[in-house]
Amino acid sequence: MKIIVIGASGIIGSAVVKALAAKGHDVTGVHRKSDPPFDLQKPETLDAVFAKIGKVDAVVSCAGSGAFGKALEELTDQDLAFSVSDKLMGQVNVIRRSLKHLNDGGSITVTSGSLARSPMPKAAAISMINAGIEGFAIGAALDAPRGIRINAVAPPWIKETLEAFKMDATHGQSAADCAKTYVSVVEGKQQGQIIPTL
Ligand SMILES: NC(=O)c1ccc[n+]([C@@H]2O[C@H](COP(=O)([O-])OP(=O)(O)OC[C@H]3O[C@@H](n4cnc5c(N)ncnc54)[C@H](OP(=O)(O)O)[C@@H]3O)[C@@H](O)[C@H]2O)c1
Q: CB 44: neighbour CB atoms within 10 A?
């Protein structure tokens, strides 16, 4: 399959690119510093990516940030606006803008995260946008034309991320294991599902 992976230079995205390529897929990775670049905050930049590589069979998004590490009373209007515009609306627009560039029966896989349903202190903005992505993905799947599948993958904490944050990584999932779920969704039949990676 011909596949675009957004966030391809990241901890999860790079593992997804590696896992998909190992299965023989033709993978193009994009992010803000790729050529052409793609920025979730500038949805129109996805058009240049499709103009370069043409129609694809799958789009996988492993990108998007939000405000993390701030208690409720510390969260600013700007924190919330950034969270919504980057990870939530960024991926909503990936779904919307990718549709016409997908072959029949193709798929779009976006990323939420376990904080949507398993909250932790100082992460309410992340819980909000993850839940929003999941809601949009399962709703959008009902409307998707031409057999196109739309799903959200919801990773737990990733081992490499916990290590980078100097947090206890004992129960983290490796990025390589997490990537196996993305591969199964791209190659599988799931439609309108929220898929944990554990
Ligand atoms: N790691 C975890 O523990 C974990 C757990 C649950 C969910 N998630 C979610 O999984 C996704 C990927 O996480 P990660 O840990 O792999 O992140 P990461 O290591 O920080 O990598 C993020 C990737 O996305 C790109 N990116 C960042 N902002 C972007 C933007 N505005 N537009 C386009 N590309 C952008 C980055 O490249 P450039 O900077 O060059 O653009 C990079 O390729 C995130 O949505 C995160 O919330 C992660």
A: 10
Q: How far is the CA of 190 from the centre of ligand 1 (A)?
A: 23
Q: Which atom of ligand 1 is nearest to the CA of 87?
A: 45
- Domains, the chain, ordered by start: 2-196 (3.40.50.720)
The ligand 1 atom nearest the CA atom of 172: 3
| Closest residue to atom 37 of ligand 1, CA basis | 31
CA distance 81 to 85: 6
Q: What is the pTM of this model?
A: 0.98
For residue range 95-115, list pLDDT tens digits in order.
Answer: 999 999 999 999 999 999 999
Ligand 1 centre to CA of 105 (Å) is: 27
